[in-house]
C-alpha cells in the first residue's frame, strides 16, 4: 500500500456541515463586524486570503471567530450527515488495513458527536481538533511526530486549497475532493496528488 495512515479534513470533506456553517457565519457577522456571505459561488472560487478579504475578516479576529463558530455548531452536530458514500469508503479502507484519522479546525468534541451520530467513530484511531483556523500545517506535523510516521506514509484528504497547501508544507501528499467548499478548478490549480469527484474514486485508487 502506498500510505499507512489516511488523514481527513472534517467540514466539507467527511461531513456536510457547509449549509449550517453558512447560516452560523451570517448570524455572527454583525457581532464580528464582517460582511455576510451572499454569493456562495464566489467563496468556492476564492483562496483563503481572498476569502478573508471579501468578508472583511482580520487575522486577529480569527481565533475568536473560530471559537464562536465551533460553539454554535455544537447544537447542530448530531443532525449532520456524512456525505453519501463516505461511510462505505471509511469501512473499506479500514478493512484494507489503512489507519484513519481526522485533523480539523473544528473541535474534537463536535467531530466525535457527529461521528457517533453516523456510527462512524470506530474507523478513526485519532481525532485532532486544533484551535487556529490557519494551524493545519502545524497540526499535521504534530501527528507525524505522534505516530512516528514519515510524510510519504501519510495522505491528507481535504476540500480546500488550504488543505493542499498545509499538507504539502508538512511533506504529506494531498487528495482534493470536489464536493466541499472549493471548486474543481481552484483545487486542480494547486496540483494535489489526486482530484476526487466521488468518494468511491478513493477506493479505486487506494484499494490494494
Ligand atoms: Mg474542509
Describe the structure.
The radius of gyration is 16 Å and the shape is globular. By secondary structure, the chain is an alpha/beta fold. It folds into 2 domains: 5-16 and 80-206, Rossmann fold (3-Layer(aba) Sandwich); 18-78. The model has no long low-confidence stretch (mean pLDDT 95). It contains 10 helices and 6 strands; from the N terminus they run E-H-H-H-H-H-E-H-E-H-E-H-E-H-E-H. Helix content is 46%, strand content 13%. It has helices spanning 18-32, 40-44, 48-55, 62-73, 86-96, 108-117, 136-147, 161-169, 184-189, 200-206; strands at residues 5-8, 99-104, 126-129, 154-158, 173-177, 194-196. Magnesium ion is lined by residues 9, 11-13, 158-160, 180-181.
Summarize the structure in short.
With about 210 residues, this protein is of the alpha/beta class. The chain is built from ten helices and six strands.
- Biggest sheet layout: 6 strands, parallel
| Fraction of helical residues | 40-55%
CATH names the topology of the largest domain as Rossmann fold
Give the count of structural domains: 2
Q: Largest beta sheet: what is the strand line-up?
A: 3-2-1-4-5-6
The span between the termini is 6 Å
Bound molecules: magnesium ion
CATH architecture field of the largest domain: 3-Layer(aba) Sandwich
The class by helix and strand makeup works out as alpha/beta
Give the full name of the CATH homologous superfamily of the largest domain: HAD superfamily/HAD-like
Low-confidence stretches are none
How does the overall form come out from the CA principal axes?
Answer: globular
- Specify the CATH class of the largest domain: Alpha Beta
Mean pLDDT: 95
Secondary structure: number of strands:
6
Order of helices and strands: EHHHHHEHEHEHEHEH
What share of the residues does DSSP label as strand, in percent?
5-15%
Round the Cα radius of gyration to an integer and report it.
Answer: 16 Å
Amino acid at each position: 500500500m502506498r500510505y499507512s495512515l489516511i488523514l481527513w479534513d472534517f467540514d466539507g470533506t467527511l461531513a456536510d456541515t457547509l449549509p449550517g456553517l453558512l447560516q452560523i457565519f451570517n448570524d455572527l457577522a454583525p457581532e464580528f463586524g464582517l460582511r455576510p456571505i451572499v454569493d456562495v459561488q464566489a467563496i468556492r472560487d476564492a483562496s483563503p486570503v481572498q476569502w478573508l478579504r471579501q468578508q472583511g475578516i482580520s487575522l486577529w479576529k480569527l481565533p475568536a471567530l473560530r471559537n464562536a463558530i465551533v460553539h454554535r455548531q455544537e447544537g447542530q452536530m448530531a443532525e449532520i450527515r456524512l456525505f453519501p458514500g463516505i461511510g462505505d469508503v471509511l469501512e473499506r479502507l479500514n478493512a484494507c488495513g489503512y489507519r484513519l484519522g481526522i485533523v480539523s479546525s473544528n473541535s474534537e468534541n463536535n467531530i466525535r458527536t457527529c461521528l457517533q451520530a453516523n456510527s462512524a467513530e470506530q474507523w478513526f484511531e485519532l481525532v485532532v481538533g486544533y484551535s487556529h483556523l490557519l494551524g493545519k500545517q502545524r497540526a499535521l506535523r504534530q501527528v507525524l511526530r505522534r505516530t512516528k510516521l514519515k510524510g510519504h506514509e501519510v495522505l491528507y484528504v481535504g476540500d480546500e486549497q488550504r488543505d493542499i497547501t498545509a499538507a504539502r508544507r508538512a511533506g504529506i501528499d494531498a487528495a482534493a475532493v470536489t464536493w466541499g467548499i472549493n471548486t474543481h478548478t481552484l483545487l486542480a490549480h494547486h496540483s494535489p496528488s489526486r482530484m476526487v469527484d466521488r468518494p468511491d474514486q478513493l477506493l479505486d485508487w487506494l484499494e490494494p
